[in-house]
Amino acid sequence: MRDDFFIYIGKNAADKLIGYCQNHDLDQLMLVADDNTYAAAGRQLSATLKAAGFDVRTSLLKGEEITATEQHFVQVLLDTGREERTFIAVGSGSITDITRFVSFHTRSNFIVFPTAASVDGYTSAGAPSVIAGFKKTVMCQSPLAVFGDTDVLSAAPQKMIASGFGDMLGKYIALADWRLGELFWHEARDEAISRRVRVAVDKCVERVSEIGQASPEGIQALMDGLIESGLCMLDANSSRPASGSEHQISHHLEMKLLWQHKPAVFHGTKVGAASVICAAYYDKLRQMSRSEAAKQLDKAQQPSREQYEREISEAYPGIEDKVLAEQESFMSLSAQGYRELKQKIVDRWDDIQEVAASVPSAQQMAGWLRQVGGETELEALGFTSGEIKEAVEYSHLLRNRFNVNKLWHLCGIEIM
Fold it and tell me: What b-and-e string marks burial along 162-194, b requiring 16 or more CB atoms within 10 Å of the CB?
């Protein structure tokens, strides 16, 4: 429980929601759902709220795959009308992000009623969105409250539960990457928040067997971890504690699917498989001696601005300006600054080894994913070897962050 908003995960969540709305004089409500989430919880929730005397409207998003794009933002806006209402997101990640975005830009509050333990963004303020073809997190607002019904959550498809677990496993990579950013790129890092995220993901791993069985105890543990991860992002005012190079690979592939007009793949499912790739990077770093790293750094050549521009143009046509803006600090690094960065990496190789040791092996990560029914390889999700190679090669360009992928591309540390 927090002072700034209310969280309830347990039985009879709809009753708790009704009590909350009554206590806070929230009489006019706007449910946002899609066909699947409306069938899973929205229809019953709407009927229950109406029976309790609330004025309820619903925006029902249609389509096989619902993503947070301009199309769906506009549809919810058109469905809402001009009267003031409190939004209720009935769904998982995309529905919550769409509702977060629209409620923020209409100066309205919103509540989350999750239907699957599939993502960690329920409590965060950021809305990962694809706007003009570019995947970015738009800072909006956190919800007033979250009400998760464990019966509904346990009944979700196992692939969605596996997606939530994959999203949590990605925190091992994100935390290690955040530490690299602090060491070598002067990124602000909060040790207390890092510890909280680590505890959250460790607790999920401890319950991996129960999560794989979708037991109430396992789903409770997974939702607790996802909620805590979202709170940590909120407290950090950034996705940094929960999103690293594994998310950038996922984001690249997500945009690729959108550009090709192909069906989406669950966010956490991609993150889980990408985390196995990134864990292998850290496996390689653990095995690399300081002298070997020094030899590779000595041979490394600083990427030129022209090289950055060429790669960005090839990998991200149509959104080059946005990606170039993200990479400006790397492109502007002086020759002296580059030499100092390489020397600092040599000098602090013990710290890098310590960071690498904090990440479970790729084999262990893959084993955990299999236990919950998740995919361990991006090929199994329908991506070609060429698409995966491209994502691994270019996804480090998506964010102004230093991570294990940037250690490879900027500094020449061979981890592939």
Answer: bbbbbbbbbbbbbbbbbbbbbbbbebebbeebb
